[in-house]
Amino acid sequence: MTAQLPITIDGVISRMEEIDAELDRHDGVACFNRVYLKVTKLVKEHVTAGTFKDPAFLERMDVIFAGHYLKNVDAAKAGRPTELPWQPLFEARGNRVIWPIQFALAGMNAHINHDLALAVVETCKERSTAPEVAPVHEDFEKVNDLLASVEAEIRAEFELQIVKVATAPAEQLKHAVAAFSMSSAREVAWLNATQLWEARNNPVKYQVQLTAMAGAVNATSRMILAPVVPPPAD
């Protein structure tokens, strides 16, 4: 049976904590899940603290957003195919030549560059608003600052590890990791969200855009996840 998706941000956090407890820490999905759990807890803190102008909208979007990831976790657990943007991560999750940061970035790529645009559109529809109506975009932008702090933290940890692998392939890995930016991905996600919103009443155009998004994200994740050099043993 498919697990029921959470309806609150606390429920999302609980599900992610369950996933973290269930999976081997080296599992590629677990690597992404740890980062996503940290981000979600940070978003919750700022929802509670009043950082956002419309905290109810932001929390609901966060829950819908997480649901896209959790549906793929449930599908993989049940032996069903995952969605195209998520396939590279779930297929490579057991490859121990791939670094945790590669798994984390591939998950972010799938989730931000595909799922986030859908979450914006779905939340706007549900709450009878639109991406251009204040403060939807302003609150969306505030999340970027939160993500930047988490991204800087995981990159700093990666840089400490990579100095232990002083080889030419390690340099190649550094360049591959440096090419992905969460803030840039969110800028693309916003553009995709506005384009999907404009196409929402045209099923054919909407599906064409979704298909293009999914294909591009799949290809990017496969590049991010290319095995280069094994991480140091821990």
Approximate strand percentage: under 5%
Largest sheet: none
Straight-line distance between termini: 36 Å
Derived structural class:
mainly alpha
- Write down the secondary-structure element order: HHHHHHHHH
Number of strands: 0
Calculate the mean pLDDT score and round it: 92
In percent, how helical is the residue content? over 70%
Q: Choose one word for the global shape.
A: globular
Instruction: List low-pLDDT spans.
Output: none
Question: What is the number of helices?
Answer: 9
Radius of gyration: 18 Å
Write up what this structure looks like:
This protein has helices spanning 9-22, 28-49, 55-77, 87-92, 100-126, 136-162, 168-178, 182-198, 203-224. It has 234 residues and is mainly α. α5 runs parallel beside α8. The radius of gyration is 18 Å and the shape is globular. The mean pLDDT is 92.
What key attributes describe this structure?
single chain; 234 residues; mainly alpha; 9 helices
Give a brief description.
The chain is mainly α and 234 residues long. The chain has helices at residues 9-22, 28-49, 55-77, 87-92, 100-126, 136-162, 168-178, 182-198, 203-224.
